[in-house]
Amino acid sequence: MTRFDQAWVDALVAAAGPIAGLADRCRLLFVVTGTADGKAAFFLDLDDRGVSGRAGRLPRGEHADVTVTAEEKMLADLWMGRRVYDAAFMSGDLKVEGAYEIWLDRLTPAFAVPPWATAWSAAV
Residue 51 sits in a domain of what CATH number? Predict the structure, then answer.
């Protein structure tokens, strides 16, 4: 299993879970720079009923509600709890495009506690 391939995304999705309070489906795209293979991407479809994900870019014509762009090392630090999402965003190390309020109010808090925090740290 290589980080950010489909097997990695499947393991992340299996370890994580629905996000309470996220009634409408949200598509979250991660664009990861600075990997051994250059740039990688994966996206997650999230709501309070479940989560699914795919490795790679979104299919042509589809869009993400939120796009997060960061270097692999930065994401690993965030997922391991060594950095705080807000501080990374304010310093410019983490770029967030789209529905920032969903990212800030729903996703960031959910990603910082189990089961997501555990899933992220296991995926690093």
Answer: 3.30.1050.10
Cα separations in angstroms, 121 against 24, 57, 79, 113: 26, 23, 5, 11
Pull the structure tokens for residue 72. Answer: 């692999």
Residue 40 CA to residue 70 CA, distance in Å, equals 10
**What one-letter code names the amino acid at 95?**
K
Tens digit of each residue's pLDDT (9 = 90 or more) over 88-115: 999 999 999 999 999 999 999 999 888 9
Tokens representing 90?
């304010």
Tokens representing 77?
């630090």
Per-residue pLDDT at 1: 57
CA distance 9 to 4: 6
Residue 34 lies in a domain: yes
Q: What percent of the chain has pLDDT over 90?
A: 77
Q: Which domain holds residue 26?
A: 6-119
- Count up the domains in the chain and report the number: 1
Q: Which residue has the tokens 């949200």?
A: 26
User: Does residue 72 lie within any of the structural domains?
Assistant: yes
Q: Cα separation of 68 and 75, whole Å? A: 10
